[in-house]
Batch of 4 targets.
Target 1
Amino acid sequence: MRDHPVLSEASRHGVRLGLNRMRSFLVALGSPHLAVPTLHVAGTNGKGSVVRMVASLLEAHGRSTGELSSPHLQEVNERIRYRGLPVSDAELEALLAELVEVRDRWAASEGLPQSPTGVPEAALLTYFELTTAAGFLHLAHQRPDAAVVEVGMGGRLDATNLVCPAVTAIVTVGIDHTAELGPDLGSIAAEKAGIAKAGVPMVLGPLEYPALRVVRAMAADRGAPLLLPDEHYRVAADRAGHLHFSMGETVLDELPLALPGAHQVHNAGVALAMVQTFLGPDQPLDPQACAQALSTVHHAGRLEWLGPDLLLDAAHNPAGAATLAAYLRGLPRDRPRTLLLGASSDKDPRSMVVALEGVIDRVITTQCAHPRALPAGSLAEALVGVGVPVLPAGPIEQALPLARAGGGLVIAAGSIFLTGAVRELVGAR
């Protein structure tokens, strides 16, 4: 499903962080967010990959699993998965119809604003709140053994933070969404640590000290035990790219990992630690199940090759660009490299290009149809003075063929929305 009138209407009202509205609405729905044991994943980067790996690992261990993630690349159905498959159009239509019926009754009972026609104003719930509620409702209907839920933004005030999780995680903390989350690592870490719950174990990825200090303090204050890399669990990769993981009595060697990039080693460590914690010490991870899960897991748009000349990555902040640069440094420098760059208006494209300067030869700026996308010309202006040539090229439909015409390697990055647009253009599903 590309769009739906209910979601289109809600999308006009942007992001509104806060829990009171969503909490009241979920109660009116019958509290579907409490129906399934939940693993809750936060992080600036990597949380989507961890969600996919956790779900794959749980399924391989015989646990039926649902996933809630965001944003989507091509179809909104991607945000809600049961046993690895996106919700169907028919199921999503039915879920949205049920949500609208309950929402209108709820709005009337709460005395919330009415439109000029007397119908409760649809803007009461945002796009993210509606899709999150639809996901909770779908999983409550399906009743999997576990739900893996990705935080949308931050954590403390995110609409997903009404779950009562069995395990939580913070994968990474980096600079992103500064207008909403704060200007530095400490501020952003405090928002992400807002998912900590008393008595609920929280798995951490390798956080920088300013973030780790804040997370430690908040977890201690809330009574959430922390599981730290190199202290409570260990993960590393050998020269062949195989994983080695240990946690307590669990020792796993030579695990294959399908997701490319050195950063996925740390993400896999978080995922394995979360699943081992969820299963409990009496159910150690099975080596064959873990090998099966990690060797087959897929996450579209993350260091994804769509042809020998086209690499797609959802890097959209400085830390993501640095991770992409590390991957590119490991590839042969045997042909010209073009960064096909699109960015949302709330991002810092200059810092992304600076991180990539040493591994690319030129930048072509573009834009997709998303309303937050910067025009290609404005994006090029923001890059004046960087260390590589920059050429504005208009909409992605024009820019992609132009970038590929040179016969080198094209790296499309800078925006998750751009990632979806490129996949659409080349027919990837």
Target 2
Amino acid sequence: MRNKILLLALLLFAFGSAWSQVDLMKKVVNNQSDNSKEGFQFTTVVNAEATPVENQGNSGTCWSYSTNSFLESEMIRNGGPAIHLSPIFTARCAYLQKAVNYVRMHGSVNWGDGGEEHDVINMLAKYGAIPESDYTGLNYGTKINDFSEMMGVLKAMLDEIIKAPNQGTLTPNWKEAVNGVLNAYLGPVPKTFEYDGKTYTPQSFAKDVVKLNADNYVEFISQTNTPYWKKAMMMVPDNWEFQHDWNIPMDDITKIIDYALAHHYTVAWGTDVSEPYFSWKNGIAYIPAESVRDMTPDQRASMFEGPKPEMTITPEMRQEAFDNYQTTDDHGMQITGIAKDQNGKEWYIVKNSWGTKNDYKGYLYVTKNYVEYKTTSLMVNKNGIPEDIRQKLGI
């Protein structure tokens, strides 16, 4: 029981704002098995280099950890250093920009610490980057992130700001007040820092060390309610920038991922992890052939004790799950490789940001059916996209 409680705590702090704690408790409390690892035999087919697994702590910053990890793999692939970029610097920049949007929209937009893959790319282009060693965001003695109080304080402040108490106009220093709260909880951002014997600003570090062009990264969604091969908006609360991305058919999700991995590119992946067939403890996610609610107790107990038959996924099923909240924009991770199980079936190797205390030391194995069904968005280097798809997109 203690292990289940610890698992639940991890899941509760790792998700974004889409689910309440009560909702998540109902969904994830039993999704594990004590005998899972013995039932799977995975053989790695391809796996790109990645930096060590981190722990996002009590913060909804999976999008920043996963996409920064994606960029770190891009740096390694380009011959750059294998270092951690600061996900909290990225998140802090996004929170300030999000505060501007919140005020501009008079509070009629989501407020929370969640985000999307494109937020990391946009913040990199606008603000630069900092090594994690120079900006951890742990400003007052905590060992892991804890953002709940900070985000509550910021929302209360912003809600007062939009009331415009200064004779119907906003005060000229409200952004400084928001920045002051961020400084208090996360620490001031260093104007300069030392790296490898040289002095950098965040902008010069991004230019001279990170060396990644933000224009090289393409984000995809897949929905049937807007035309394929055109840009559309993913209608989820954490898309606070209202960004439009390329809408592709469901089958092209795995086609792009497979091509990217085969050519040594990784993938930043947004997905739903709230279903009972996703097990963080066991590092396994798949779509059972039979609905979990129709399973016998013995079937539920053995869900993660070896490969099982899977349901066939259609675009219509995928859209229905998205429309009725079965698929929600919960979590961001990084797809780094492909493995085969003992039956020859391919699974994606996925790097998470919840620490290393699961069966695969922070990694998971996820079936292609799961990815087709539960992907909310994905991002890849444009050179990791199959040529025929690039031609359709004109990139």
Target 3
Amino acid sequence: MRGHIRQRAKGSWSIVITLGRDKATGKLNQQWHTVRGTKKEAEAKLRELLDALEKGTYVKPSKMTLGEWMEMWLESYVKVNCTLRTYDGYHSVIKNHLAPNLGMIPLTQLKPQQIQQYYSKEFADGKGLSARTVLHIHRILYQALKYAMRQGILMHNAADLVDPPRAKKSRMRTLIPSEVAKLFEVAKDTPYYPIYYTAINTGLRQSELLGLRWRDVDLDLAALSVNQVLYKRRRVCIFKEPKSEHSRRRLDLSPSLSLYLRTYRAQKEAEYAALGKTLGDDDLVFSRIDGTAVDPGTLTHHFADMVRKLGFSRVRFHDLRHSFASLMLLAGVHPKVVSEMLGHSSVAFTLDTYSHVIGGLQKSAMLKLDEMLHSKLAQIENISKILADEGDLDTASGQSRTDDRRFTKPLLYH
């Protein structure tokens, strides 16, 4: 036999698996597993272990805890394959949520029930963490356990059998043209007005705007390129490449924005000259007076204060990007073009994100179809009436009495 069960105490069983003989000593190499529950459950576990042994997927139990594994996963996988911003976000979730609540459980003994109970406690019927936050925690845990399976440490992903709470899709808040005008009126005397004006005219992300250099802006051809972004990590602003090839893109500028940036550059050159400096291609387009990067946090707070004074509810800086996309779609710009300008991975993602706008476009399209069809039908009715008046149409049958189809047929199709 390659495995058998022994009862240790009431409700506790030991499963002994024979892995073969040690080549050096000739002794049997046995692995022990502990199962708590009924004998039937222990027998089911034995069958599962023997099946894994037969398929070559058997994994020896480890004393490593979930917390230890997640720390190892962060350092060996996430830090190497993800952005620093993603690493910081995952590290925060593990440190503040997963480690204190599940981290002490041995990795190979983690059960779906333990994860489900933790989610229920955190969500607490809406009184604890939001459903979106719990779902984010679940995705991180799932990825960490999935990597443990790939490394041969786990046979199953316990998180795969858990149902996290569903996050409600928040309703997007976009600005209408009149609100944009009010925003510009209030912001025009602030040092951040050039950023807001460019954001609503390009749909660039905040990190893309703050990473923009003059070498990335071609005022002669009225275009700009996204080649670097700015992030704030641990109170330090750092520049890096865009996160994907889709994010690295070229945009054509509207005539008004091109003219504005030309005037804005002349003002910046004058400011630099007053300081005894020369504005170069590597200088940031949007910077502080001394040429250093604008702090993303400061910009976000300034925007929040401004929209609060205007009485705009639930408007974030990122909603300038949403407003640009919505206005472009409402103006009849093809979704594929909007998707490329936003740097989305696919037009399907764009259509899903702005489905509320697409619904309005569909109504407009159906009105145009209705107008076109009724216009064509009215044209045909008018022609039929003319023919009937001239005696060329049998009003009873609706058929022309003429044998010349070269006249009647084209009228019905052109």
Target 4
Amino acid sequence: MDDNQDKMTVAALIVAGGRGERLGGPVAKQYQNLAGIPVLRHALLAFCHHPGITVVAVVIRDEDRALYDRAAEGLDLLPPIRGGDSRQQSVLHGLQGLEYLNLDRVLIHDGARPFVSAMVINNVLAGLDVHVGAIAAVPVVDSLKRGVDERVMDEVPRENLWLAQTPQGFNFAAILSAHRNASKGHSDDASLARAAGLEVALVAGAAENTKITSAADLARADAAHTARLFDVRVGQGFDVHRFEPGNQVRLCGIDIPHFAKLAGHSDADVALHAVTDAILGAIGKGDIGRHFPPGEAQWRNANSARFVSFAVDQVHALGGRLAHLDVTIICEAPRITPHHGMMAARLGAITGLDADRVSIKATTTERLGFTGRNEGIAAQATATVRLPI
């Protein structure tokens, strides 16, 4: 992007207020899991990690707040905005909720489109350098038929036909005005913008930038995502914390009664620190200290689950997924075996892994060294990550 683009303030407005009734299931489609994390989180990560996006906000239903909080955990987002009774109304609420920021541009994206790429976002932003509106789209390549009662009645020429996607980007003031004055029933923001007399350009979308609408869509998306992940990597992590006066230790997010606690700037969860380093190592992103310096006040007493979630997000931001974790805790005491199940379940909840993809083991050093003298606990972890080629 050019220097002029860098000066622009650009919001990503993610619309996630739908009920997703066609998909079925206990929660709306945007909150169902895809590749280990909610569908919505995939979209959020794409915009949160894009250098051309200034702020990200999400439109949700009030009753989905707990699901949204899970999907958005740890991400730098504006407070969620209450949606309306229709998508069009939800977008208007979202735009009005951002008006105080005096933004130059806004990219409006469906929360149920999880695989939007940085390239597609770039294309929309570049289109806005020339036009007041620009939308991601792909040309129609298949033959089109008009049918009645499941019979072909007519051929529809496919020349100059495009499948509209999101994000759909606009000059902020122009699209806000268009929404405020629009009639009901527009199929998307581009239709509404054109009805207001705004020029809307077509820019290159991507075949994989599809919208999840049914259970079959979700299954296909998960399978397609997994099929692309041929680059298998393994990372290792190791950490040590000494004991200090206390009455419990935290391991894999589980508090275990003990004669001491582990010393550290954060919550000193030695197992989760090793896991964080293992995941970051697998993708070449350094170690926990690089991202969360122990001398910084903001990380004092921090829950180490936040560090692990950050590392997993880095994997997802690369289009990959965490495949397996193997953790070994080294200590004479406390006894780890009675807590295996809870620790594995908690680590699975943090990372999005199923129980059979999390291994928790424990061993001693036969009373040798600092762990053998009950001076502290060590942990080592191995993370397996799959990335696209």
